[in-house]
Every structure is written in structure tokens, then in C-alpha cells.
Write a structure and sequence with these properties.
This protein is an all-alpha fold. The chain has helices at residues 5-11, 24-31, 36-48, 52-63, 69-79. Helix 3 (36-48) packs parallel to helix 5. The chain is globular, with a radius of gyration of 12 Å.
Length: 80
């Protein structure tokens, strides 16, 4: 069984991940994962970096109704 880097992050507590040290492509993967706390942190980091990917991820979250009210609100804040 192969465990990739994304799987390792899923095993961690959301507050233990150093989001500022992660490359943008990993943040995108984390922002679209199923763990809502990690998703929120990753989306916030993409937004803080003024990444173009933040709006892409925000749109994906809203268009698929991913996550909960808080994640969708964060996505709206990124877009508008």
C-alpha cells in the first residue's frame, strides 16, 4: 500500500500543519480534501498568498456544494 503526502497530512491535526511552508499545488489539494478544518486552513493560506488558485478552489467548493456553511462562506469571501 502506497501512502502519498496528501494521506500523511490527513492523519495530522489541522493546526499542526505548517501551511505557510507548503507549495501552492499541495495547498490546492488540501483545500479540496474531505477534512473541513484542513480545507479551511488551506483555502485561507491560498487567499493570504493572493494566489490565483484561491478563486479556482473557491469556485470549485461552491459549484459542488462542498463542505459546510463555514467553508462555503470562506469560498465566497475569497471570490468577492
Amino acid at each position: 500500500m502506497k501512502i502519498d503526502e496528501l494521506d500523511l497530512f490527513m492523519l495530522m491535526d489541522a493546526s499542526d500543519i505548517e501551511y505557510t511552508n507548503l507549495p501552492e499545488d499541495m495547498l490546492v489539494k488540501l483545500a479540496l480534501c474531505d477534512e473541513l478544518y484542513i480545507t479551511n486552513y488551506a483555502l485561507a493560506e491560498l487567499s493570504a498568498r493572493d494566489s490565483n488558485q484561491a478563486s479556482v478552489v473557491g469556485w470549485e467548493i461552491l459549484s459542488t456544494l462542498k463542505g459546510d456553511y463555514y467553508l462555503q462562506t470562506a469560498a465566497l469571501n475569497v471570490l468577492f
